[in-house]
UniProtKB/TrEMBL annotation:
This is Suppressor of tumorigenicity 14 protein homolog. Exhibits trypsin-like activity as defined by cleavage of synthetic substrates with Arg or Lys as the P1 site. The gene is ST14. It catalyses: Preferential cleavage at 371-Gly-Ser-Arg-|-Trp-374 of glycoprotein gp43 in Xenopus laevis coelemic egg envelope to yield gp41; Cleaves various synthetic substrates with Arg or Lys at the P1 position and prefers small side-chain amino acids, such as Ala and Gly, at the P2 position. It comes from Leptobrachium leishanense. The chain crosses the membrane at residues 32-56. Disulfide bonds join C433-C451, C445-C460, C482-C497, C499-C511, C506-C524, C518-C533, C541-C553.
């Protein structure tokens, strides 16, 4: 056995012979020979081991590259320094490299490993020099070199005596050697200087006609005149999906070196056009790099930049009684290395509170609550990360707000309004939360956490329609009892809902004999006793099992398109039917207030315009020629023949009603045929479904995609959150929206909802929304989709907007056509 830490100490140990008798019998000579052989073998392996160690560890060398910048104080920047072929550039670069070499070779931990260094660029201030230095170091000394090079920063004082350059700051940062080399040698290198008052464009190679090439390394050096900063904006950004650690990505640096400590942002995947991808440099330079791998081609990006005068102004003294403050350049990404202080003071008899409406100060891989990087500090408490709207208040008439960003990573920042208020009456005619947020009085003790800190739900007397949660003591509506959702947080609303022994509890809380589970009969009434049954039963499908093309039955819950082949003929994963419910833009836009949907976020949403009235109803794309909508939209009324296809025009790929005829994303079609459900009941709205056939097929795009139609056995559980979308009224009786709106709502237990809506529900209806009101579909949303994101990451049409008692009223959730219950009708009438 060989044991050594540093090569000075070695020891050899022998394994004991297992059979000593045998060894002894052979006599002394044989004994010595064997011993000799063993020793020789041991020595040889020792030598081999030493050699391997020597070559593999001591000799194996690692290429190390450091990059960074240093500030030269006794030179003044001139234009010639921008161009590396000028003599001015080369003169100064020579001085800098000499100085660096000197610095490295006079340090015993660095000198033996130094290979080369080079200056890549200069920029203003007085002169900043960007460089890289390359080293070749034995693997075991890598850490030591790292330390020595990074330590060099603090030795800058010595530098001044040895060279003609005065250097007052020095930064080094390790970079991936391979990556650094490919960037250096890449022909895809651009140097751009902003022209005053002009926009400079740049884009990925081949954009927009061809996809960017594989294994590409590009870099763009962006500059502005002295006294300016760069405003960079990505107009289009469509790259391959983000993969870690490799994949295709774009990095933005607030520097001309690719040092990670100056990285502003890493971009990958696709951003919808509405996403505000705008960045500002802190100085007059910026660097953009592109790395692509060997697969997954996409169009790439188109970016543009301009120069704007540098202002260090932000924050300030505020003496008004109310107003708005935002991070610099909000809603664009704020700059790195900024500090703003607002000193707010309201009249002496008032107090101040600050309400943050948007708050995005996110640093990747950093969830440190002490906010060591970017933060907002209010009254000495730091806030960072991504936050829902919140309120901070003062005990007096003053408030100090400080915003600070560090050198790396920027986000879109915050917007907040400050209000002065009366200490005696912080919320006139409203309820005051603990954090002094004001909420409508009716929201007190309603079982909903309207304050955000539950202060509106404390010290309440539960009414007869409420029960009290055990741990929090909060009163909640009785509808929440035993609905399968842990509303109390301690599960106390879901305890004691059980069924006696040997019985099975249905999703609707009914108890049925255990023997009835998986007997292919719907004993529960909601089919839940026939879900999740493991066996595949050939040729005898109950209504509740998924039926394969070859008539096999799958009793697993939601087997379609889940990437698992459940049918032996694979028909549950058929590529045609599973090609649906996809959203080309995976990113959510951070909308400034409101609930505007994003462009391309619901690409199956259709706007149906009736002649002379404009937008009247919504619909969903389910195939290139077929839309699903609500039957009640096509009932003749007030002398208008809504049932006549020629009355209607469908707009697909639409986002903003105002650009319906101008947007290139929109495809407009007339309607060839309308088939409303034969048993649609005008009075009860039972069977509220219709199928529309388009005059000609549409072409799918980033803005037009079909939504998946769920199988009739598909289960959308109570409490599941879904999206309802449309251009309908923004308030009850109000006018419609111009931008497509979205709202997140939850499925509500059928029986509870039926009680609330005075038994007006049929099995062809489902309820979704909030018992507390406030969020709902409204007039003009009818026919539109209730979209459900399923575990296979596809969106399914769970419902169709049908009716409601007013809009967003308390205890009046919205009612939707139950698509799974009408699955056969869709098959028969749309052939899908
Ligand atoms: N019937 C309405 C329409 O024609 C839709 C109503 C939906 N209402 C509701 N509160 N969810 O647009």
């Amino acid at each position: 056995m060989f044991q050594s830490m540093n090569g000075y100490e070695e020891a050899v140990e022998f394994l004991p012979a297992t059979d000593t008798k045998k060894v002894e019998k052979r006599g002394p000579k044989v004994k010595f020979v064997i011993l000799g052989v063993v020793i020789a073998a041991a020595l040889i392996s020792l030598m081999v081991g030493l050699l391997v160690w020597h070559f593999a560890y001591r000799m194996a060398r690692v290429q190390k590259v450091y990059t960074g910048n240093l500030r030269i104080t006794n030179y003044v920047f001139k234009d010639a320094y921008e161009n590396s072929s000028t003599t001015d550039f080369n003169d100064l670069a020579g001085k800098v490299t000499d100085m660096l070499k000197n610095l490295y070779t006079s340090n015993p931990d660095i000198a033996p490993h130094f290979s080369e260094c080079r200056v890549t660029a200069f920029s203003e201030g007085s002169v900043l020099a960007y460089y890289w230095s390359e080293f070749s170091v034995p693997a075991y000394q890598e850490a030591k070199l790292d330390n020595a090079v990074l330590e060099l920063k603090i030795q800058t004082v010595n530098l001044r005596q040895r060279t003609v350059l005065s250097v007052d700051s020095f930064e080094a940062y390790p970079v991936d050697a391979q990556l650094a080399r490919t960037f250096r040698t890449s022909s895809c290198s651009y140097f751009l200087h902003a022209k005053p008052g002009e926009v400079t464009k740049f884009f990925t190679p081949g954009f927009p006609n061809t996809a960017y090439p594989p294994n590409m390394r590009c870099q763009w050096t962006l500059r502005a005149d002295a006294g300016h900063v760069i405003r960079l904006n990505f107009k289009t950004f469509k790259m391959d999906i983000c993969k870690t650690p490799a994949g295709d990505y774009v990095k933005l640096y607030d520097s001309l070196s690719i040092a990670e400590n100056r990285l502003m942002m890493t971009l990958c995947g696709s951003y919808p056009p509405s996403y505000n991808l705008t960045f500002f440099s802190s100085q007059n330079v910026m660097m953009v790099t592109l790395v692509t791998d060997d697969k997954g081609r996409q169009p790439g990006f188109m970016a543009q930049f301009t120069q704007v005068p540098m202002t260090t102004l932000c924050g300030g003294m505020i003496r008004d009684s109310g107003g708005v403050i935002t991070s610099p350049f909000y809603p664009a990404h704020y700059q790195a290395n900024r500090e703003c202080v607002w000193d707010i003071q309201v009249p002496g008899n008032k107090l101040v509170k600050l309400r943050f409406n948007m708050f995005y100060l996110m640093e990747p891989n950093n969830s440190d609550a002490t906010c060591p990087k970017d933060y907002v500090e209010v009254n000495s408490k730091k806030y960072c990360g991504e936050k829902q709207s919140f309120v901070v208040s003062s005990d007096n008439n003053k408030m100090t707000v400080r915003f600070r960003s560090d050198l790396s990573y920027t986000d879109t920042g915050f917007t907040a309004d400050y209000i002065s208020y009366d200490a005696q009456n912080p919320c006139p005619d409203q309820f005051t939360c603990n954090d002094r947020k004001c909420i409508n009085k009716a929201r007190r003790c309603d079982g909903w956490n309207d304050c955000g800190d539950f202060s509106d739900e404390l010290e309440c007397t539960c009414t007869e329609t409420q029960f009290r949660c055990v741990k929090s003591q909060i009163c909640k509506p009785k509808y929440f009892l035993c609905d399968g959702v842990n509303d109390c947080g301690d599960n106390s609303d879901e305890a004691n809902c059980g069924c006696p022994d040997n019985t099975f509890q249905c999703a609707n809380k009914k108890c049925v004999p255990q023997a009835q589970k998986c007997d292919q009969t719907d004993n529960c009434g909601d089919g839940s006793d026939e879900l999740g049954c493991p066996a595949v039963v050939p040729n005898s499908c109950s209504d509740l099992a998924y039926k394969c093309k070859n008539n096999e039955c799958i009793t697993k819950s939601n087997p379609e398109c889940d990437s698992v082949k459940d049918c032996s003929d694979g028909s549950d994963e058929d590529t045609d039917t599973c090609n649906c419910g996809r959203r080309p833009y995976s990113r959510k836009t951070r909308i400034v207030g409101g609930v505007n949907a994003d462009t391309g976020e619901f690409p199956w949403q259709v706007s149906l315009h009736a002649k002379n009235t404009g937008h009247a109803c919504g619909a969903s794309v389910v195939s290139p020629t077929i839309l699903l909508s609500a039957a009640h939209c096509f009932q003749d009324a007030q002398g208008v023949r809504y049932s006549d296809p020629s009355l209607w025009t469908a707009y697909l790929g639409l986002h903003n009603q105002a650009t319906r005829t101008t947007s290139t994303d929109v495809q407009q079609r007339s309607i060839k045929r309308i088939v409303a459900h034969k048993y649609f009941n005008d009075f009860s709205y039972d069977n509220d479904i219709a199928m529309l056939e388009l005059s000609s097929p549409v072409t799918y795009s980033d803005f037009i995609q079909p939504i998946c139609i769920p199988e009739k056995t598909h289960n959308f559980p109570v409490g599941k959150s879904l999206w309802v979308t449309g251009w309908g009224a923004l308030t009850e009786g109000g006018s419609g929206a111009s931008i497509l709106q979205k709202a997140e709502i939850r499925i509500i237990n059928y029986n509870e909802c039926n009680q609330l809506l005075e038994n007006q529900l049929t099995q062809r209806m489902i309820c979704a929304g909030f018992v507390s009101g406030g969020i709902d579909a409204c007039q003009g949303d009818s026919g539109g989709p209730l979209s459900s994101l399923e575990s296979n990451n596809k969106m399914y049409l769970a419902g169709i907007v049908s009716w409601g008692d007013g809009c967003a009223r308390r205890n009046k959730p919205g009612v939707y056509t139950n698509v799974t219950q009408l699955r056969d009708w869709i098959k028969q009438n749309a052939g899908l």
